[in-house]
Amino acid sequence: MRSFGFGSLGCALLLGALAVTGWQSAAAADGPKTELKAGDRVVFLGDSITQGGVSPNGYVTLIKQQLENLPLDPPVEVIGAGISGNKVPDLQNRLERDVLSKKPSIVFIYIGINDVWHSESGKGTSKDDYEKGLKEIIGKIEGVGGKVILCTASVIGEKNDGSNKLDKMLDEYCEISRSVAKDTKVQLLDLRKAFRDHLKENNKDNKEAGILTGDRVHLNNAGNRFVANQMLAALGVEQLGPDRGQLRHIVLFKFKSDVSKEQIQEVVDAFGNLKNKIKQIKGYEAGTDVGVENRADGFTHGFVVTFASEKGREIYLPHPAHKEFGKLVGPRIEKVLVFDYWTN
Q1: Which residue ranges form the domains of the chain, and what is each CATH number?
Q2: Among 176, 184, 206, 302, which is most exposed with the fewest C-beta within 10 angstroms?
Q3: Would the pTM of this model clear 0.90, i.e. be above it?
């Protein structure tokens, strides 16, 4: 590892951050296109798949992180509104509380799994109620000025040859969703088709689960990234890059001998405060050297900044708050060492 002056370091890292990465392809959504604007509020309405989507690796969280990289002020707000076990009638019952009262700009409706799945216990949703319910939900969302992106249901079993027990019924309900989108002239995101196309290419062993789901229905990490990319494409937003985990940005300082403890603490406090000014920072740690091998080479203070993507680092480096910090710390350090790496 090589030590740099603070100014040349920032320049070198910025060049690295601008390196091109590959993007996963996603199926384009049909119908009217939706464009994000500053201050938009995006709601994700659905069942347990969407409820799980707000977890750290969930698709709602991944979309939120990607939207934070957009140069929009005020930023786009993301709201997860998924409840386990929900069917279309459940969405109708809680629409005012969980969606309309939020004054949404855009609403993704990702529903249909339980309407079909629960039919096995006699508690599914009839086709007529499913269609009428979707149309009522869409009408009420549009009534408060929101735009709808209607998603077809994904899978109940990942076998790619049509042999999952509920494939036929699920396809029938997805066809209703497609028809509703056409009738109401809203944007359709055909997740069912996207899943099936992906599974034909990537499930050569015709497994029932383990490709995009953990249990035939609920998304695993790969499934969450897949859905996030489909929805980002529907919004016209750049998709997620390859899943390399989180990006750690390690910084070590060796202070000049004439810098006081008070001045060092001022630097430490200012570095820690960056996380309150730069939303792309997803994690922060700091500490002083406690090594016993005497190999620190005079570096006494270490900092770990975590980003969700290279894009986050790309925004962080030239950010005004980071530049202001550089003005503070620059005259006080003899050397700075930086090392970045990906981790899961």
Answers
A1: 6-16+243-343 (3.30.70.100), 22-234 (3.40.50.1110)
A2: 206
A3: no
